[in-house]
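Instructor's aside before we start: the two examples that follow are unrelated to each other. I chose them only because their records fit on one page, so don't look for a connection. First example below.
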Amino acid sequence: MNPSATVLVTGFEPFNGYNVNPAQLIAESLNGQTINNASIVGLSVPVEWNESISVVTQAVEDVKPVAVLSIGLAPNTRFIRVEKIGLNLRCMSSDNGKRYVFSKVEPDGPSLLVTDIPTHYIAKEIRKSGIPARQSFFAGTYICNNLFMGF
């Protein structure tokens, strides 16, 4: 990577009753760091359907990164999930979680997006550090997936 390369790392703000989101803390702690000659821009992202996409889109326009790494919190997951696929689907609960409403993230978009990033290899490298990690094929139907599809 050339010395002027920038990598954008995003982490979501707290949600669903959590006071802290480790994803946000990671992004904020990396902000301003240089790793392997890449300048890191860490960004907190709101947990809101449209605003999350707008914030990241604006950051990409501003800093012109060579890569974007988005980090999220999946409660009750005991390993890092490196997402391979985003679905053009969002799920919003209504009636305090008694009923769910599904819609498309991108009305005219494809049913799914598959990243060309080597997610299996990345998960394998993370495991070499002693951290549990797996390639994942489902980013869920909440804000992480929304950002994967909408950005």
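Example two begins here.
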Amino acid sequence: MIFADLELKINTKKGNEILLLKRSKQENYEKTVLIIGVFHGDEPDGEYLINRYLSERSDTKNRLLFIPCLNPDGKAANTRTNANGVDLNRNFPAKNWKKNQKDDYFGGEEPASEDETRFMIYVIEKYKPDLIITLHEPYAVVNYDGPAEKIAQKISQITGFKVEESIGYPTPGSFGTYCGVERNIPVITLELPQHSENKADKDNLWQKTKGVFEYIAEDF
């Protein structure tokens, strides 16, 4: 059972659904926070955490928007890229986008070439989030773009993951550059530890990160 309202949905090239879910107790919410899981199909734990949070009722002063799985085609194939072989986190029309070689980091034939990317751009423009959190793996750090340093420090305190302003390698056409650097939206890339199917590991991951969901609901 998921305690959230369906706001939007689209179908991918393979016919899988991408859902935008909303949890908002009242119309006079204070801020809007967008949380995104599974940018990369081989990084599934973001969806697990979002669904686990939404499986229980809780109060929120903010409007919370969730995309549990942005890349269901990649998830089904256990690939970083989507069904077209594009790394969605290199496909945004940021000023530093460039066409690169066709590998796991291929940014597409042109910026915003992918349905998933265009859906994200639409969501950003329509809902104008005050904070965006994307859930990735496997570095166990808190990375940030835009005016998000204090938020990153807070999330670091909650999770125990250290703050890293740079992920350590170039990311042309990245979501963080498009939203954080160029649009001045606070963007947190919460890098989770290496994925594990072990139940104890999953429970431990939830215990480490559930405070982040409580923070964005009540304290941010």
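Strands lie at 5-11, 17-23, 32-37, 63-67, 131-136, 139-145, 162-164, 187-193.
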